[in-house]
Amino acid sequence: MTFQTLYQSPFSGLIKKELFDKILENMDDRTTWYEIVLDTTEVTAIDGSKASARLLEWVSRVEKKGHHSRLDWFYADQTDRPQMIKLYNPLKCGCSGGEASVPWMIFTTVKPSEAELKQFEKPPKGIMDSIVYRIKTIRNFLP
Fold first, then answer.
1. 0.85 exceeded by pTM
2. Which of 17, 75, 96, 118 ranks highest by number of CB atoms within 10 Å?
């Protein structure tokens, strides 16, 4: 299965503590997980034995922002053997009528290709964004 196919598959919200805990228990600790921060399209490989702890670090980030629940922002493709977990940023959830909601970060067992990550890149808005965008572009050409 490709990253894109998995990304576009149906997801369920982890609105109950039991579902969230089930995800943590059922994350495959024998496979490499990939953490993708979509604002930067940065991909980090995580040893399977540390994946659930890393996911809990993201829970802590949401809770430190003062949001009411650690569950509302998490969605998984399946609870019994998850392959992808999406975390939405509570401050950019799309519920204010702005841009469509895009995950804040993704945990997945399927590594995305460079082409698949391109869909998440945002064009620069201001001078600082333009500078950062150019640095990222130059860095992609370096060995």
1. no
2. 75
Contact, 98 vs 51, CB < 8 A? Answer: no
- Pick from 122, 139, 25: which is nearest to 81 by CA? 25
Give the pLDDT confidence of 7-36 residue by residue, as tens digits: 999 999 888 889 989 999 999 999 999 999
Q: Count CB neighbours of 109 within 10 A.
A: 20
DSSP 91: G
Strands 33-37 and 84-87, sheet pairing: unpaired
Between the alpha carbon of residue 126 and those of residues 1, 40, 129, 133, the distances in Å are: 37, 16, 5, 10
Write out pLDDT tens, residues 31-52.
999 999 888 888 999 999 999 9
